[in-house]
């Protein structure tokens, strides 16, 4: 393997010849199949653009109708009532593990800006945390880990199949970012986790088919065999955050069954995927502005209810979506309104049968835990709730046109502002960014830019001003938002210039970029 990124302080502890050889072995064996599956995604996209649709697969009917179950919950994953998400920087590593959540989603993906220093440094932080050799000082305050039995269980989210790690090459070609992130963590930390009575656990993002889950399962089997770790030790939770995956939930669980830890309702990326997959189909799949699309929309309700039923039918955990609110110690009124919304959201999820849910900030852990405690009591989960009352058809999942809500200038302007602020932060190395008391990540930036693209290409008229959404209107709003941002202290003109060029490319070009992170990453050093 060829490494062309800088070897910063202690990076040699992670980028050892043995670890890189392990990743290279995975890349050589599974890299070609990964590329075939990415080509299959494009073929499916072309089929949808030509008038095709999504449906439950007839060829896998026997999987859906036969009797089978996933492996029982692994140590440290029996109780997942509160999970906290966040990037793998040193401060977040300590705060997330100390947060009181049952699980920490240690994120190399949507909440992480993939600067080389972040990707390798994050691996170092995880290893140091498992060795209890991690601390952090900021503003005269020292952060350190609590006792081991109080720490959250680490579940690592590697980057998706579509991404490369350009600083690592095998045979002259970039390594899959998925295999790079997975391989380094597994090589260095699998045995460390087992020594602590847990195991190497993962969240798998952005998959679009059960065949992509099958590839992950094959990677898991080979990785365990190479390091002499028993098969079935790895456990993985799959984010159902693409539209096609919602029609293959049972098949995804089946492919991973000895390594499966359940499914998660990745609501923000799911909305982005709805737009992306049917972007050429006119108003049938047109969404109102982001804040108007709630989890009670018919197509979102169908998606989450089917997820819980599917998981519990097969003995797998169902994990709810993100509470992205960031509490403010300066505005109790804003807090009160937002916390009530968080409580209502988690109450709905726990009542629907979810076994746990996500929060983005440690201050939300008590709220989420209180709601799930009220339903679970001393039980670790509610896998016994089979939700046999739920019946969801393909038409229910596709009923986007029944979503209530408007498209306003405020909503358009909000999308532009969030995208610009987030992309500037992302290019600067931050992947999770607090904007107006909400934790924004790559998924919410994707919704923001894809909605702008969708509205331009469907001649939308704004409900509050009567203006038509055009490239010219969006250009004007971009200029106005940039002027306001430029007046703020600490404004970085160069980063915002990069963010503006990137946003215009992914929101205003006629060709729709599959992921904004692809052209964004190409601009990174």
Structure description:
This protein has helices at residues 17-49, 61-65, 90-97, 116-130, 177-195, 210-227, 249-255, 267-277, 298-313, 332-352, 365-376, 394-397, 409-427, 442-456, 471-486, 493-508, 517-523; strands spanning 2-3, 82-87, 103-107, 135-138, 141-144, 153-157, 164-170, 173-176, 201-204, 235-240, 260-265, 317-323, 356-359, 433-435, 438-440. It has 2 domains: 2-395, Malate synthase, domain 3 (TIM Barrel); 406-523, Malate synthase, domain III (Malate Synthase G, Chain: A, Domain 4). The longest helix is centred in the first third of the chain and has 33 residues, at 17-49. The chain is of the alpha/beta class and 525 residues long. The strands form 4 sheets. Strands 6-3-2-13-12-11-10-9 form an 8-stranded parallel sheet. A 3-stranded antiparallel sheet has the order 1-7-8. The radius of gyration is 22 Å and the shape is globular. The protein contains 17 helices and 15 strands.
């Amino acid at each position: 393997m060829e490494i062309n990124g800088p070897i910063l302080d202690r990076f040699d502890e992670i980028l050892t010849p043995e670890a890189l050889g392990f990743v290279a072995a995975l890349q050589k064996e599974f890299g070609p199949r990964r590329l075939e599956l990415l080509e299959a995604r494009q073929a499916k996209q072309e089929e949808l653009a030509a008038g095709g649709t999504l449906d439950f697969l007839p060829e896998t009917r026997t999987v859906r109708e036969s009797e089978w179950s996933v492996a029982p919950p692994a140590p440290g994953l029996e109780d997942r009532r509160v999970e906290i998400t966040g990037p793998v920087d040193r401060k977040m590593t300590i705060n997330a593990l100390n947060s009181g959540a049952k699980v920490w989603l240690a994120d190399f993906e949507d909440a992480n800006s993939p600067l080389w220093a972040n990707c390798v440094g994050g691996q170092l932080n995880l290893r140091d945390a498992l060795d209890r050799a991690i601390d952090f000082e900021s503003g005269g305050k020292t952060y350190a880990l609590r006792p081991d039995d109080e720490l959250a269980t680490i579940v690592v989210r590697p980057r998706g199949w579509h991404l490369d790690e350009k600083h690592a090459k095998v045979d002259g070609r970039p390594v899959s970012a998925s295999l790079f992130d997975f391989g380094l963590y597994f090589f260095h930390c699998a045995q460390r986790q087992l020594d602590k009575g847990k195991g190497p656990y993962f969240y798998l993002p952005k998959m679009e088919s059960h065949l992509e889950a099958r590839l992950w399962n094959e990677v898991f089997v080979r990785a365990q065999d190479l390091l002499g770790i028993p098969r079935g030790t790895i456990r993985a939770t799959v984010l159902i955050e693409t539209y096609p995956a919602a029609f293959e939930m049972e098949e995804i669980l089946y492919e991973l069954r000895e390594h499966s830890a359940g499914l998660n309702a990745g609501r923000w990326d799911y909305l982005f995927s709805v737009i992306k997959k049917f972007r050429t189909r006119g108003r049938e799949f047109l969404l109102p502005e982001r804040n108007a699309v709630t989890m009670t929309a018919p197509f979102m309700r169908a998606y989450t209810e089917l997820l819980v039923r599917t998981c519990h039918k097969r003995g797998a955990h169902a994990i709810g979506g993100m509470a992205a609110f960031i509490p403010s110690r300066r505005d109790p009124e804003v807090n009160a309104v937002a916390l009530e919304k968080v409580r209502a959201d988690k109450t709905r999820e726990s009542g629907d049968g979810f076994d746990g849910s996500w929060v983005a900030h440690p201050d939300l852990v008590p709220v989420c835990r209180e709601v799930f405690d009220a339903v679970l009591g001393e039980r670790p989960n509610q896998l016994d709730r089979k939700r046999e009352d739920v019946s969801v058809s393909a038409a229910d999942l596709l009923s986007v046109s029944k979503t209530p809500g408007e498209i306003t200038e405020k909503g358009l302007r909000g999308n532009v502002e969030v995208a610009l602020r987030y992309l500037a932060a992302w290019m600067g190395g931050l992947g999770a960014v607090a904007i107006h008391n909400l934790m924004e990540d790559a998924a919410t930036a994707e919704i923001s830019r894809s909605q702008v693209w969708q509205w331009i290409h469907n001649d939308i008229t704004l409900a509050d001003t009567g203006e038509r959404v055009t490239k010219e209107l969006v250009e004007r709003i971009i200029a106005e938002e940039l002027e306001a941002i430029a007046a703020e202290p600490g404004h970085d003109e160069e980063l915002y210039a990069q963010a503006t060029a990137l946003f215009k490319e992914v929101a205003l070009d006629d060709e729709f970029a599959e992921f904004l992170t692809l052209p964004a990453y190409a601009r990174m050093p």
